[in-house]
Amino acid sequence: MALASRTDLEARLLRVRERLNKLELEALLVTHIPNVFYLTGMRASAAAVLVEMDSVTLITDSRYITVARSLADSGSSLKAIRIVQVVDSYNETIREEVFQRKLSRLGVESQNMTMKEALWYGQELKKATTVEATDGLVEEVRILKDAGEVQSLRHAGSLLASAVPLVLDLVRKGRTERAIAADIDRLLVTQGFEGRAFETIVASGPRSALPHARPGQRRLEIGDLVLLDFGGIYDGYCVDITRAACVGPPGDEAKRLHEAVLEAQTAAIAVVRPGNFASDVDTAARDVLKERDLADAFGHSTGHGLGIELHEAPLVAPVNQAKTRATDVMLKAGMVFTVEPGVYVPGFGGVRIEDDVIVTLQGCDVLTEVSRRLAVG
Question: Which residue range(s) make up the domain with 270?
Answer without folding.
Answer: 147-376
